[in-house]
Amino acid sequence: MRTKLVARGKKKGCIFFLSILFSQSTISYKRISAGGPAHCQIILLVIDSSRCEACAAERGKDATAGMPLARSLSVTSLSGLEEWDEEFDREDAVLFEIAWEVANKVGGIYTVIQTKARLTCEEWGENYFLVGPYTESNVRTQVELIEPCNAPLRRTIDKMNSSGCKVYFGRWLIEGSPYVILLDVGFTAWSLDRWKSELWENCGIGVPWFDREANDAILFGFLTAWLLGEYAAQCDEPPHIVAHFHEWLAGLGLVLCRQRQLPVATIFTTHATLLGRYLCAGNVDFYNNLAEFNVDKEAGDRQIYHRYCLERAAARCAHVFTTVSQITAIEAEHLLRRKPDIVTPNGLNVKKFSAMHEFQNLHAQSKARIQEFVRGHFYGHLDFNLDKTVFLFIAGRYEFSNKGADIFLEALARLNYLLRVNHSDLTVIAFFIMPARTNNFNVETLKGQAVRKQLWDTAQTVKERFGKKLYESLLVGQLPDVSKMLDKEDFTMMKRAIFATQRQCLPPICTHNMLEDSSDPILNCIRRIGLFNSAQDRVKVIFHPEFLSSTSPLLPMDYEEFVRGCHLGVFPSYYEPWGYTPAECTVMGIPSVSTNLSGFGCFMEEHIADPSAYGIYILDRRYRGVDESCNQLTSFLFQFCQQSRRQRIIQRNRTERLSDLLDWRYLGRYYVSARHMALAKAFPDTYIYEPQEPSSATGFRYPRPASVPPSPAHSLHSSPHHSEAEDEEEPYDEDLEAEKDRVNIRQPVNVPNRNKNQTVGLPEKN
């Protein structure tokens, strides 16, 4: 069934309070007067599941549940969403989006909120506020502090500041310039013990004193609930407040809103479950044993039970619970004991170029800069052709197994063997961009860049002297005597420069001095597989244990520039709820390897008939063993290495055309649906859902391109070393192929501005 949100006549004299029934996560609604009962015991029931009969029965049911999850309002299919035929007035509706990563770069949620802000501002206008923690260093560079223009909010902030808090208001200097409310958790640390006691008495959650992150979550949660409650009290008429909470660090505010029965429609989004991340890092068969885990015991064994309780309470108490991918929805249903109401995939702000070839030019420019770094890094051992060199990379949080660095290294060792036995003249350089503990740059690495620069300066000096002699010879009308163009001094300079490039050791693997060299997982794995950048190896490895920066003296490139210059991103993650790194590759037209255990990989498999034809290689880590998955990844890499230059260009064009799938202009509508669903549940006398039959639009899947495939398995040639003349004979028309793809794409509709008919159709239940 497809559903639609309709606004009823508003009743100004009432406040709607909600009570939750624990059984099977269902929600019922009860309208009571403002002076009615305000006590709610449901929080304790949700948390202390060991004493709840309903939870025990639910565990028994989960133990017999299979792996597949029937989608309830999952909107990861590209179906056409119908427009509202009722006007929805947002004048008295306010959206607060709460996250620890607001103006505070910690992880991937920062990217979600930052890139989505512009679209949300267009939808909600002046009624959209982001709430996050106050960090002075971030505020100095990212936030412009101003006075609130919203009268109730101004009174709220003044009241809180006069009561012993520090609340700041301003504009976040990003695209869309959204309003931000920043709460100074350190300034209110004096209330920590009192709030911990209140949390224990009302919710049965005890937080140990030594967990600083959990302490910050308590302070932030109580301040958030205080802010929302005070705002509701300061409004002249009962407002329609929507509060969207991201992750467990912000989730306590949601729990308190429900326990205090505030008139707030709540949404909780989990980007990755706490317990899931810990279990996967522990080298367990996670996805095949989801129904078997004793979640309370597993959380307790890892000393995160209090965090798990906060996360589970937020998921269970929210009006609408969402996750970022279908694979995370399966995980959440088993670990958090609630089936997500809707899947809200993460997007990016896609900037299309007016000319199709422009992003190819950017690739060439960035690749040239990477080549310069490689020339310095491998000085003295530069016995390979950079024009026949392919750059691979993996980047992200340093989680050796979760991010798939282990299987990537093993596949590189097998790829090295295949290239050597096939006598390939292609060289593969694999970059590992994962931050680890270091104390400085490696001296040998810095020396390499200095030697490269010295060689460049020597060549420029000789060139200038050669050019001057050539110029003077031509001025007098004589052809130059080549034997006299370079004198003995020039040859001496060049010989000294050549001798300076001599090196007794192999090029370094790591660009920095590691503090824990002997126990580092990547370095230990490289020692085991024997990839030491020797002359015989066709696969070279460079470990850069620091995030990239344009101010670095070693590799002065931003991450975006670096990605554009590479040929393939490899992300064989075992645990990846969404996967921004392959998504960023796709938007920039760079092919990538993902897995069917990542949200991005599942999303692409669902929407593309043949992902590999579009440069999206999906590795099977769900139904295959580690060795089989490693062989499959090796096959992907070997096939990619067999492509000709022209085939790689064709593939990048196809990859870049998938960027519309990941644009917030399309994916943002799923957040719109979640907010409207929450409004209907929180204020049932004002908004209701009316079911209607699904439309004829059932979405689309990108077809396999009809033109020459980029995979060498189907190529006309058996070797990547054929001539450019042979390339030109391949039947390929770029404009015609692009037009075929566009015919199969239902263009994303723009989210309408405030006070206009809204696009709100909800997805079909499967």
Blueprint (SSEs and pairs):
Elements (H helix, E strand, L loop, with lengths): L1 E6 L10 E3 L6 E3 L12 H6 L5 H11 L29 E6 L9 H17 L3 E6 L2 H7 E3 L5 H12 L4 E6 L6 E5 L8 H12 L8 H23 L5 E7 H13 L4 E7 L3 H8 L13 H7 L3 H13 L2 E4 L2 H10 L6 E2 L14 H20 L11 E7 L9 H17 L5 E7 L4 E4 L1 H33 L6 H4 L2 H13 L11 E3 L6 H9 L9 E6 L14 H7 L2 E3 L9 H8 L4 E4 L3 H9 L8 E4 L6 H16 L3 H12 L7 H19 L4 E6 L31 H5 L5 H10 L23
Parallel strand pairs: 4-5, 4-9, 5-8, 9-10, 10-11, 11-12, 13-14, 13-18, 14-17, 18-19, 19-20
Antiparallel strand pairs: 1-21, 2-3, 6-7, 7-8, 15-16
Helix pairs in contact: 5-7, 7-8, 8-11, 13-15, 13-19, 14-18, 14-22, 15-17
Organism: Cirrhinus molitorella (mud carp)
Catalytic activity: [(1->4)-alpha-D-glucosyl](n) + UDP-alpha-D-glucose = [(1->4)-alpha-D-glucosyl](n+1) + UDP + H(+)
Pfam families: Glycogen_syn
In short:
Pathway: Glycan biosynthesis; glycogen biosynthesis. By secondary structure, this protein is α/β, with parallel strands linked by helices.
Explained architecture:
The chain has 766 residues and is of the alpha/beta class. Helix content is 42%, strand content 13%. The chain has 26 helices and 21 strands. A nine-stranded mixed sheet has the order 6-7-8-5-4-9-10-11-12, sandwiched between helices. The chain has a six-stranded parallel sheet with strand order 17-14-13-18-19-20, sandwiched between helices. Helix 21 links the parallel strand 19 (592-595) and strand 20 (616-619). Helix 13 packs across helix 15, helix 13 packs across helix 19 (559-565) and helix 14 packs parallel to helix 18 (521-529). The longest helix has 33 residues, at 443-475. Pfam families: Glycogen_syn (PF05693). This is Glycogen [starch] synthase. Belongs to the glycosyltransferase 3 family.
